[in-house]
Design goal:
The complex is a heterodimer.
Chain A (H helix, E strand, L loop, with lengths): L1 E3 H4 L9 H11 L2 E12 L2 E11 L7 E6 L4 E6 L9 E5 L4 E2 L8 E3 L2 E3 L2 E2 L2 H4 L28 E8 L10 H12 L21 E4 L7 E8 L9 H9 L7 H13 L3 E5 L6 E6 L5 E3 L5 E3 L5 E4 L4 E4 L3 E2 L12 E7 L2 H11 L4 H7 L6 H17 L2 E9 L7 E6 H8 L5 H10 L3 E5 L2 E6 L9 H12 L19 H15 L3 E2 L5 E2 L1 H6 L22 E2 L4 H13 L4 E13 L7 H10 L10 H5 L1 E16 L8 E2 L2 H11 L4 E4 L5 E11 L2 E9 L1 H6 L7 E7 L20 E10 L4 H10 L5 E10 L8 E10 L7 H19 L2 E2 L3
Parallel strand pairs in A: 12-15, 26-29
Antiparallel strand pairs in A: 1-11, 2-7, 2-11, 3-4, 3-6, 4-5, 6-10, 8-9, 13-21, 13-22, 14-21, 15-18, 16-17, 18-19, 19-20, 23-25, 24-25, 27-28, 29-30, 30-31, 30-35, 32-33, 33-34, 34-35, 36-38, 36-39, 37-38
Helix pairs in contact in A: 4-11, 5-6, 6-9, 7-8, 10-12, 11-12
Chain B lengths: L2 H18 L3 H12 L4 H7 L6 H40 L18 H16 L2 E2 L5 E3 H4 L10 H5 L9 E3 L4 H10 L4 E10 L10 E11 L4 H16 L5 E6 L4 E10 L18 E10 L1 H6 L8 E7 L1 H9 L12 H4 L3
Parallel strand pairs in B: 1-4
Antiparallel strand pairs in B: 2-3, 4-5, 5-9, 6-7, 7-8, 8-9
The chains are: A alpha+beta, B alpha+beta.
Chain lengths: 817, 342
C-alpha cells in the first residue's frame, strides 16, 4: 500500500517526520518497505505567466522564455516546446531540491541565463507525463505559490500490509491505524451530492449466484460530461498511490478504492443490455478481456453479465464490451463483495492477478460497500457533472453485524508477559473501532465488520500488545523442565559430517530436483522405478525429485570442472525420494490422510502407503579427477575405486564389499556395500559413458552412496589388551590364479583362528613377467604376537599353517623366499 | 734399536697420525694400524713374555703407557671429528623451509549447516531436543493443521511446489512442530532444522533454503519468554553486545505474531554505509509469536492450560550476514571455491 503523506493528512493530524512515521509504523503496525519521494522536496514553485517564448539562438532543441513571476520577469531556458505566450506554468525557483536529489541553481545554458525551471507533470509528481510543461488554467494566480493549489512534493510511505489486514489497503484504514497508534482522532470525508439523475431501476439487477456474491450494489449516474479529465489534485493522488490516471470516471473509482480499499467497477450504461446479471460462467463461455486476451471460463467462475453477454470476470478483469470510455455519458457503478476464495481460485486458474483480485481475495467488508458507493457517486457528480440516480439497486440478503469478543485482562497479561491496564486496553480497542463494554476483569469488544481478523481473544491481545509497544515486554528465560540433547542418530550425523570433512571432502547442499536426464543418464528408469515429479517445477530442468544424491553431486563436480578445477571431493547428507506403489483402493484413504490428517484405516498403516512417497536419509560422496594435486614431494591422489572404498570403510566399519554392477557404474569396478548381509549402499567408479554425459568426460570419477542408518562414523570404543613383548613380522608371497579374490584369501586366513596372528596386511599384488601368465603374486605381511616371546619355530609353524590353508583353498604356491 | 725406543717411535708416529686424521674412518684406520690385532705395538706386547725378565717390566710399562696415550688421543680426536662430521651432515640435510608442507586433504562443512549446528547447540544447552520430519509433506501438516485452511489467503503467500494431490514440498519446517505435538504431551521444547522449499528464484530467493524453527509449549509461557530466549540466542550467535527488538507481524499459526530484529553486530547502527545492516542499525532475523490457540486445539492441547511460543529463522541468511556472503545462490551450487572457504 502506497500512502502519500499529503493525502493521509486529510484524515488525521500528526506531527512526525516521514522517517519517524515510518519507524512508528514498523514498531506498532506494519513493516515499511521504504519511503518514496515525489516532486519538489524542498523549495518553492510559483505560478508564472509566459510573456515571450521562442527558439534559443544557439541551440536547435532549446527554447527561451521570458516569464512573469508576479512583478518579476525572469528568463528561463526550456527543452519542451509547448508553452506559449500567455500560458501559465509552474516555475521551480533556484535553490530548490527535487525528488531525485538534484539541487536547482541559476544556470547558463548555451550562453543564455536560466532562472529556475518550468516543470512537467512528472517533475511535480503528478503523473509520468514528461513530454511537455504542465500548463495551468486561468484559476492559477500569477506569482502565487503552486502549493496553494496542490502539493508540489510528496512523500509516499510504502506499507507492506500483512494479508490479514485488508482494511489497511485503504487510506481510511491507514488513518484509523495511525490515530490508534497516536491516540488521536481521524476524520472521513462526507459524500455530498444532489440526487437528480435518471433512475437506476431502468435496469434490472439479478444475482443468480448468491453464494459467491454476498453483496452487489448498483447505481446509475447519468448526464456525465464525456471525455472529462479528473481534477489535477485527484490525478496527483491517484498517481502518487501507484495507479495511472485515465479519465474522470475511472479515476473516481480508483480514488475511492484507494481511499476505502473497496474495488469499484463502472459500466457504460448504454452498452448494458437490460441490466446486470451476476452468475456463474456458462459451459464453454469465453471472454475477450481488457488485456486483449481471450480466455476460456469455467462454471466455477463468477461473471458479471447483462442479459446477453458476459461483461466482467467478477473481481478480476472486464471485457471491453461495456467499459467506460471518452464517449460515455451514462454510467452504472458497481460496488460489490465477492467470495474471496472463489476470486483467488479464478485468478489462479486464469493466470491473471489484478489489483482488484488481490483485494477481493482477502475477503472485503460488505458494510464498506454503502460508503464507497456514496463516495464515488459524489465524486462522479462533482467531477463530471453527472447526475446520481435517486436509488441504488442492492443485493445484500445477509447483512453482517459487529460481533462480540471477550478479552480477559489476566489472559492478556499471561500471553504478553507484561502488565496490561484495563483502561489502556479499552482505549486502544476503541481507537481501532471497537465498542468496548466491561464485565468483571473482562472487556467485551464489539468488533467492527471491517476487522474480520479480530475473531478471538488472542487477536485482541495482539492488538493491545502491539499498540502498547512490544519494547515494553520484558525479556525472560523459561525454566525448561526437561533434559535436552541430541538423539544418538543426531549425534551420529554430526560425527559423520565432521569425519568426511576431516577426511578432506567438502560438504555440499544441492537442490533435490533436477532434469529427466538425471534419471535417464544414470539408467535409473530401467528398474521400473520412476522418479517423483513436481507438478509445477520452476523449469523443465527441475521437475524430478532425486532418487539418489549422486546426480546433484555429479552436476556440482562438472560445474567445478567447467570453472577450471582439476578435481575435487564433495559429499552431501540429505533426503532422497522414491515413489511407493499404493495398494488398490487406497486412493480415497490416501487423499483423506493428506488433506485432513486422518489415517482412516489401520492406525499402524505406514505413512508411505498413504503418501506414496518413500523418503530416506542418505550420505554420498563423489571423488572426481585429481582429488589432491601432486605436490613437489608427493604424487597426486586420483579418484579411483579404492579411494571411494577407503572412505566407506571408515564410515561403515565391518562393511563387506561384493561385486555387483549398477547401470551407472564401471561394470568391473562396482561393489555393493553389505552390512550384516543387508545392502547398505554401493561404492564404485562411474561408468566412463555416464561420466561423459555429466560433463566429466575423460575424468576418473569414484563415488559412494549409503543409507544413513548403516553408517557408524564414531564406533563404540572397547579396550583390547596388548602384550609388552616384541611382535614378529613375517612376509609371505604366494602365486594364485588371477581370478582369486584377495578378500577371500584374507577371510580364509582369518578362519584359521590363529591365536597368535595379530594382523594380516596385503602389501603387494603383482601380475607380469615374474609370474606365469594367468596368475598373480600376492604379498602378505603377518604380525604374530603372544603373551610371551614367540620362538622361531612357533612362528614358522603358524606361517606354514597359513600357507597350507591358502594352498588348499586357492592352489596358492609360495614364491621363493 | 731397543724395544723401548721402537715403542717411543710408534707412539710418536701414532699420535701424529691421530692428529692428522680428518675423519672417523681415518681414525679407525689409525686405530687398526697402531692398536689393532696385528699392529706392531700389539705384537710387541704379545712378545713381552719372551723377553728377559729384567726387561719385561720396562717394555711392558712403556707399551701400556703408549697404548693408553694413543687410545686417549684417538678418543679425544674421534669426539671432535665426529662432532664436526655430524655438523656437516646436518648442514647438508638442511631443507628449504619455504617449500610448502605435505598437503593433507582439506575438507569443509557447509556454512548454513555450521550455523544450524551452532543454533541447535544453543537450544540443546537450554534443554531443547531436535525434531525432524519429511520434506515431502501432506497438505494437512503443511497448511491446514497450522491454521491455514484451503482457500486461505496465506497459502498464496507461499509459492508452493506441488506433487500428487494433497502432497507438497514443505514450505517451512512448521509441520514438524505439529508432528511433534501430536506425538507427545506438553511440555514441549524442540527445535526443528531442515530444508524447505518455495517456488521462487531470484537473486535473493532460491527454491530451496534452510530453516530452523523452534517450539515451546508449557504452562505459563509468555511473549516475554520468547523475547528472552531469542535475545539469548542472538547473543550466542552474534556476540554478547547485540540487542533485539520485536515488531508486530503476521503468521497464520501464531497470535500475537512478531518479527525479531537484531542490532547490527558490525556497526551497532553507527555506520550509514554499513555493509551488514545497510545503515538501518537493525537486521531482520526471524519471525515468531505465541502459538495460535487454534493450533494447540488442533493437536489436542488445551489452550487454556498451556501457552507456547514458536519462532523460525533462516540459517542461510544468518550465514550470509555472519560470513559476509553476498549471494544466496552460492550456497547451493556445490562450488568448491565457495565451500572450501568454510
Amino acid at each position: 500500500m502506497r500512502v502519500p503523506l499529503s493525502w493521509l493528512r486529510e484524515y488525521v493530524d500528526f506531527d512526525l517526520s516521514a522517517d519517524e512515521l515510518s519507524d512508528l509504523f514498523s514498531l506498532r503496525s506494519q513493516e515499511v518497505d521504504g519511503l518514496d519521494r515525489l516532486g519538489v522536496l524542498d523549495g518553492e514553485v510559483v505560478v508564472g505567466e509566459v510573456v515571450e517564448f521562442g527558439q534559443h539562438p544557439n541551440a536547435d532543441r532549446l527554447n527561451v522564455a521570458k516569464v512573469d513571476l508576479g512583478g518579476q520577469e525572469v528568463q528561463i531556458v526550456a527543452g519542451a516546446p509547448n508553452p506559449y505566450s500567455g500560458a501559465r506554468v509552474p516555475i521551480v525557483l533556484p535553490g530548490s531540491t527535487l525528488a531525485d536529489g538534484r539541487k536547482l541553481k541559476k544556470a547558463k545554458l548555451r550562453g543564455m541565463e536560466s532562472f529556475g525551471m518550468m516543470m512537467s507533470e512528472r517533475e511535480l509528481g503528478i503523473s509520468n507525463e514528461h513530454t511537455g510543461i504542465l500548463l495551468l488554467d486561468e484559476s492559477y494566480e500569477v506569482g502565487r505559490p503552486v502549493s496553494d493549489y496542490f502539493p508540489v512534493g510528496d512523500t509516499v510511505l510504502e506499507l507492506d500490509v500483512n494479508p490479514n489486514r485488508p482494511d489497511l489497503w485503504g487510506m481510511i484504514g491507514v488513518a484509523r491505524e495511525l490515530a490508534a497508534i497516536l491516540k488521536t482522532t481521524f476524520r472521513i470525508p462526507e459524500p455530498r451530492f444532489e440526487v437528480n439523475g435518471e433512475p437506476t431501476s431502468a435496469y434490472i439487477l439479478r444475482v443468480e449466484a448468491p453464494d459467491l456474491c454476498p453483496r452487489y450494489d448498483l447505481r446509475r449516474v447519468s448526464h456525465v460530461r464525456p471525455g472529462e479529465r479528473a481534477p489535477l489534485e485527484m490525478r496527483r493522488r491517484v498517481h502518487a498511490a501507484g495507479m495511472r490516471p485515465i479519465n474522470a470516471i475511472v479515476d473516481a473509482t480508483n480514488y475511492v478504492m484507494i481511499e476505502t480499499g473497496q474495488p469499484i467497477h463502472a459500466f457504460d450504461a448504454h452498452q448494458v443490455r437490460d441490466g446486470i446479471v451476476v452468475r456463474r460462467a456458462h459451459p464453454g463461455e469465453e471472454m475477450t478481456m481488457l488485456d486483449g486476451q481471450t480466455r476460456q471460463l469455467d462454471e466455477e467462475m463468477l461473471v458479471i453479465a447483462d442479459e446477453e453477454r458476459g461483461l466482467v470476470v467478477a473481481g478480476v478483469m472486464g471485457a471491453e464490451t461495456a467499459e467506460v470510455d471518452d464517449e460515455t455519458t451514462d454510467v452504472l457503478v458497481e460496488v460489490a463483495t465477492f467470495n474471496g476464495r472463489n476470486i483467488m481460485e479464478t485468478s489462479q486458474r486464469l493466470g491473471l492477478r489484478t489489483d482488484a483480485s488481490g483485494r477481493f481475495e482477502r475477503g472485503l467488508d460488505p458494510e464498506m460497500v454503502a460508503y464507497a458507493m456514496e463516495r464515488v457517486t459524489g465524486l462522479l457528480a462533482w467531477n463530471t457533472g453527472g447526475c446520481p440516480a435517486p436509488n441504488t439497486l442492492s443485493h445484500y440478503p445477509e447483512p453482517v453485524a459487529p460481533w462480540q469478543v471477550p478479552l480477559r485482562l489476566a489472559r492478556a497479561e499471561l500471553l504478553l508477559g507484561m502488565p496490561v491496564e484495563e483502561g489502556e486496553a479499552a482505549e486502544r480497542l476503541e481507537l481501532l473501532g471497537c465498542k468496548v463494554g466491561r464485565e468483571d476483569g473482562c472487556l467485551l469488544a464489539d468488533v467492527p465488520t471491517f476487522r474480520r481478523d479480530l475473531g478471538r481473544e488472542a487477536d485482541l491481545i495482539e492488538e493491545v500488545g502491539r499498540l502498547i509497544g512490544l519494547e515494553n515486554v520484558p525479556a525472560r528465560l523459561p525454566g525448561v523442565p526437561l533434559p535436552g540433547g541430541l538423539t544418538p542418530n543426531q549425534k551420529k550425523l554430526r560425527s559423520l559430517r565432521r569425519l568426511l570433512a576431516d577426511l578432506g571432502l567438502a560438504e555440499a547442499v544441492t537442490y533435490p530436483f533436477g532434469p529427466d536426464r538425471w534419471i535417464e543418464d544414470l539408467g535409473l528408469d530401467d528398474d521400473g522405478r520412476r522418479a517423483l515429479k513436481l507438478r509445477n517445477p520452476l523449469s523443465a530442468e527441475a521437475g524430478n525429485l532425486r532418487p539418489a544424491l549422486l546426480p546433484g553431486l555429479l552436476d556440482a563436480a562438472a560445474r567445478n570442472r567447467s570453472f577450471g578445477a582439476r578435481g575435487g571431493a564433495l559429499f552431501e547428507v540429505g533426503h532422497v525420494f522414491e515413489p511407493q506403489e499404493q495398494p488398490e483402493g487406497m486412493r480415497e484413504y490416501a487423499l483423506r490422510y493428506r488433506l485432513s490428517g486422518e489415517i482412516g484405516l489401520d492406525a499402524e498403516m505406514p505413512a508411505e502407503l498413504l503418501t506414496g512417497v518413500v523418503e530416506k536419509g542418505k550420505v554420498a560422496g563423489v571423488l572426481a579427477g585429481n582429488v589432491r594435486p601432486p605436490g613437489w614431494n608427493i604424487p597426486a591422489i586420483t579418484a579411483g575405486f579404492f579411494e571411494a572404498k577407503g572412505l566407506v570403510e571408515r564410515l561403515v566399519p565391518g562393511a563387506v564389499f561384493e561385486p555387483r554392477p549398477r547401470p551407472f557404474l564401471h561394470p568391473g569396478r562396482a561393489a555393493a556395500v553389505l552390512l550384516d548381509g543387508a545392502e547398505a549402499g554401493w561404492a564404485g567408479e562411474l561408468h566412463p559413458d555416464v561420466a561423459a554425459r555429466f560433463g566429466l568426460e575423460g575424468w576418473p570419477v569414484a563415488a559412494f552412496e549409503l543409507d544413513l542408518g548403516s553408517t557408524e562414523p564414531d564406533p563404540l570404543m572397547r579396550f583390547e589388551p596388548f602384550y609388552n613383548v616384541p611382535a614378529v613380522s613375517m612376509d609371505l608371497a604366494v602365486v594364485v590364479n588371477t581370478d582369486v579374490r584377495v578378500g577371500e584369501m584374507l577371510e580364509a586366513v582369518a578362519s584359521l583362528g590363529s591365536p597368535i596372528l595379530a594382523d594380516a596386511r596385503v602389501f603387494d599384488v603383482y601380475e607380469g613377467a615374474q609370474v606365469p601368465s594367468g596368475q598373480k603374486s600376492v604379498a602378505l605381511n603377518f604380525t604374530f604376537q603372544a603373551a610371551q616371546t614367540l620362538t622361531d619355530a612357533e612362528v614358522k609353524a603358524e606361517l606354514d599353517r597359513i600357507s597350507e590353508q591358502l594352498r588348499e583353498a586357492f592352489g596358492a604356491e609360495v614364491r621363493g623366499t | 734399536m731397543t724395544a723401548a725406543e721402537r715403542i717411543e717411535e710408534l707412539r710418536e708416529e701414532a699420535l701424529s697420525a691421530v692428529a692428522s686424521a680428518g675423519s672417523t674412518s681415518d681414525l679407525e684406520s689409525v686405530r687398526v694400524r697402531y692398536l689393532g690385532r696385528s699392529a706392531e705395538l700389539t705384537e710387541i706386547k704379545k712378545s713381552i713374555r719372551d723377553l728377559p725378565p729384567e726387561d719385561r717390566k720396562a717394555v711392558g710399562g712403556a707399551s701400556n703407557k703408549a697404548t693408553k696415550e694413543i687410545e686417549g688421543a684417538l678418543h679425544e680426536r674421534l669426539e671432535s671429528v665426529a662432532a664436526t662430521e655430524r655438523e656437516e651432515r646436518l648442514r647438508a640435510e638442511a631443507v628449504d623451509v619455504t617449500l610448502p608442507g605435505t598437503p593433507y586433504l582439506k575438507g569443509s562443512l557447509h556454512p548454513s549447516l555450521r550455523v544450524i549446528d551452532e543454533v541447535v547447540d544453543f537450544f540443546v544447552g537450554l534443554g531443547y531436543r531436535v525434531a525432524e520430519g519429511p520434506e515431502v509433506e501432506t497438505d494437512y501438516y503443511n497448511f491446514t493443521a497450522l491454521n491455514i485452511p484451503p482457500g486461505h489467503p496465506a497459502r498464496g503467500m507461499q509459492d508452493t511446489f506441488f506433487l500428487d494431490e494433497g502432497l507438497v514440498l514443505r514450505t517451512h519446517t512448521s509441520p514438524v512442530q505439529i508432528r511433534t505435538m501430536l506425538s507427545q504431551e506438553p511440555p514441549v521444547y524442540v527445535v526443528c532444522p531442515g530444508r524447505t522449499y518455495r517456488r521462487d528464484s531470484d537473486p535473493t530467493h532460491t527454491p530451496m533454503f534452510n530453516q530452523i524453527e523452534g517450539l515451546a509449549v508449557d504452562k505459563g509461557l509468555t511473549l516475554g519468554h520468547l523475547k528472552g530466549t531469542l535475545a539469548a540466542m542472538a547473543r550466542h550467535v552474534f556476540g554478547e553486545d547485540v540487542k533485539v527488538r520485536l515488531r508486530p507481524s503476521y503468521f497464520q499459526f501464531v497470535e500475537p505474531g512478531v518479527e525479531l530484529d537484531v542490532s547490527c553486530f558490525r556497526c551497532g547502527g553507527s555506520d550509514p554505509n554499513c555493509k551488514v545492516c545497510r545503515g538501518a542499525g537493525w537486521i531482520e532475523m526471524l519471525g515468531a509469536g505465541m502459538v495460535d490457540p487454534a493450533v494447540l486445539t488442533e493437536v489436542g492441547y488445551d489452550p487454556e492450560e498451556y501457552t507456547g511460543f514458536a519462532f523460525g529463522m533462516g540459517p542461510d541468511r544468518m550465514a550470509m550476514v555472519r560470513y559476509g556472503i553476498p549471494d544466496l545462490r552460492l550456497f547451493f551450487e556445490g562450488d568448491l571455491r565457495f565451500l572450501h572457504q568454510f
